[in-house]
Design brief:
This protein has helices spanning 16-25, 83-98, 107-114, 127-137, 152-157, 169-178, and strands at residues 3-12, 31-35, 43-50, 53-61, 73-82, 104-105, 124-125, 162-168. The protein contains six helices and eight strands, in the order βαββββαβαβααβα. α3 links the parallel β6 and β7 (124-125). The protein is 33% helix and 28% strand. This is Permuted papain-like amidase enzyme, YaeF/YiiX, C92 family.
């Protein structure tokens, strides 16, 4: 059976909003994204739509060249999956991308995480809720708690993913380019 890899990218951009989240969680990374290609060119998440406003958000295709990621720290993890799992995850992402105008950022859900109270909203996700939903829809991971309570740290702790790189996002991109898009462990 042919295996494929999917990638989990955890970041800390250092913005005011993410510093508030980090002050509460006490964890190094506060944003989660998922990628299905090895050169990390198509990275998906739920987050801010406007760089200067964390309250206007929804489905996003991450642009790691954007100013917000200029000084971001990251951790990149990989997981081998079957072709069937990969296709299920990809289909789920594609369906949301095609109807992204119907989806919103689940800001209220973040308060649910604070109080360990699952708050699910129709067509709304926060970043780690989206990533964990992709993983569940792809039958890659079955979480023991609702996806609406999954944090970036929960994703980081999953045994299915192996750390590939941790450090500055800009440095990772240079390493990836210098190694013909092959991820190298530092």
């Amino acid at each position: 059976m042919q295996k494929k890899k999917i990638y989990l990218i955890l970041t800390d951009t250092g913005t005011v909003f993410t510093r508030l989240i980090k002050a509460y969680t006490k964890k190094p990374f506060n944003h989660a994204s998922i990628c299905l290609d090895e050169n990390l060119s198509n990275v998906y998440s739920f987050g801010r739509k406007m760089p200067n406003n964390p309250f206007i958000g929804g489905f996003v295709k991450e642009d790691f060249q954007a100013t917000i990621f200029l000084h971001a720290r990251c951790a990149v993890y990989s997981c081998e999956v079957s072709t069937e799992q990969f296709q299920k995850a990809k289909t789920f992402i594609n369906q949301i991308e095609e109807q992204q105008h119907l989806y919103h950022y689940n800001l209220i859900g973040l308060f649910g995480v604070m109080f360990n109270k699952s708050i699910k909203r129709k067509r709304a996700f926060f970043c780690s809720q989206f990533v964990s939903s992709v993983l569940e829809e792809g039958k890659i991971i079955s979480f023991t708690k609702p996806t609406s309570l999954i944090t970036p740290y929960d994703l980081q702790k999953t045994s299915e993913f192996q750390l590939e790189y941790q450090g500055n996002l800009a440095d990772f991109e240079r390493i990836a380019i210098n190694h013909n898009n092959q991820i190298s462990v530092c």
